[in-house]
Amino acid sequence: CAKCQLPSTNCCSKCRRVYYCSREHQKADWTNHKTLCGPPFKIKESEAEGRYLVASRLIKAGEVILQELPLVVGPKLNTLPLCLGCYKSITDTYRCSRCNWPLCSAACEESALHKNGECRMIDPTLMTNHLSQGAINSQVFQCITPLRYLTLPDSDRERLDELVSHLEQRRGMDIYRLVEQNISSFLRYRLLLTQYDSESIQRVCGILETNCFEIRIQGRVSVRGLYPTASLMNHDCVANTRHVFDPADFRIRILATKDIPAGDKISATYTRSLWNTLDRRLHLKSTKHFWCQCSRCADPRELGTLLSAVKCTGCGGAVLSQNPLYQMSNWECSDCGSVQKVEQVKRVHDSARMELKQIAQLARNRPELLEDFIRKYSGAIHPDSCHVIEAKYALVQLYGNTPQLLYHDLSEELIERKLDYCRQLLKLADVIEPGLSQLRGHLLFELQSVTEHKANRA
Fold first, then answer.
1. Does 102 map to a domain?
2. MYND-type domain spans which residues (predicted)?
3. How many CA atoms lie less than 13 Å away from 321 in the CB half-sphere?
4. Do residues 224 and 212 make contact, with C-beta atoms less than 8 angstroms apart?
5. Cβ atoms of residues 204 and 148 within 8 Å
6. Domain span at residue 194?
7. CA 146 to CA 144: how far, in whole Å?
8. Running DSSP on this structure, what letter comes out for residue 84?
9. Which of 235, 265, 268, 386 could crosslink 307 through cysteines, CB 3.0-4.6 Å?
10. DSSP H or E stretch at residue 128
């Protein structure tokens, strides 16, 4: 209780951040609480950025900025076959008694999202033709999330229709043709839902792909959710928030990873923080339809981390982009000034990425492959290269946590190596994911764990 400090489970119904043991104590504390009650953000709009969130007051690190239920949840564009009630992986053993769609059980027929969405729209005789016994085509799941959007109540549709779709940019792209072939045509001509025109379906798919969050919950197939307010957060490659999902109802919780002063933009990261600038910007352009111009992307040295650097073959210095905000810019050695075409740099990065991807499949049983990769590419590319960093992070997760690599199996040398990797990566995380971020939290946990085991050996 904010007034008397006694334990309490009753929170302020408006902000849900402060607790009280009684109605009387809530009223007594209103003078103090009213300045903090309500959302700590406001929505702004500009021609360049559209709508976005800014802090309306100082938001402290760790504070919950926003909690929100999704208006739409469903399969991703590329998905494994999954139950549309609980989102667990399925085989074709049970069918919905109403629409004939594959599900886990009768209980999942009553899932509100399924029952009120696709189930009431689909003719079961048509589904029999498209979902033959024993052969579930994962492509048919691509239509489910757009269909759930299209069947929302008008009030919810109106809120989501305000979100950016990038429809014009998508025309002529492969994704536009894929949606037309696999989703629009399927809904209109195979399921006979001709009340939805192709343009509306394309716009809905654009809104979903631009604004959805990926929801990963253990034991279930990854799905996507659309949150009307959370999706307004701007992207930044060094974000000031992180988000978590409640597995019970997919509620998103946005938390500040560091103090956010009043007036500052509230940002999330929609790409991988350990990737280099070329890859991050290309990923954002292909999935979110914009070229990132944040301070990290604009800095050839990536805020001093050198994650994008490759080694100069002439003098051994760091070769960096002359203009990181232009994808085709030449690259230049910071020591000798020699210039390389971006195609040369891409070939180096692509080669390392492919090799690391192949090694990752075997590393659980052969971690020495990752150690060899680190030694090879620390010299061949750069010791701070993103590929070397990813290999070190993989080893931090393997050492002490997998069979045959538990702490009692590790030599003193490997214990020290994990300690060293944790410290190196924490210095990096302090720059690219500062504060109370997931990356720093994971690394601190692993550092504490290996430090404890080292102390117990002494």
1. yes
2. 1-37
3. 24
4. yes
5. no
6. 72-226
7. 6
8. T
9. 386
10. helix 124-130
Structure tokens at 434: 């500062």
Query: To the nearest whole percent, how much of the chain has pLDDT over 90?
Result: 84
* Cα atoms in the 13 Å half-sphere on the side-chain side of 45: 5
**Domain annotation covers residue 392:** no
Domain count of the fold of the chain: 1
pLDDT in tens, 175-206: 999 999 999 999 999 889 999 999 999 999 99
Q: Are 211 and 226 in contact (CB under 8 A)?
A: yes
* pLDDT tens, position by position, 217-250: 998 999 999 999 999 999 999 999 999 999 999 9
Three-state DSSP class for 243?
strand
Tokens 């992070």 -> residue: 393
Residue 144 CB neighbour total at 10 angstroms: 23
pTM of the model: 0.89
Q: At what angle do helices 386-398 and 438-457 cross, to 10 degrees?
A: 50
Name the pairing type of β-strands 223-226 and 72-75: antiparallel
Asked if residue 136 belongs to a domain, the reply is yes
Structure tokens at 50: 């559209």
- The distance from CA 287 to its chain's CA centroid, rounded to whole angstroms, is 12
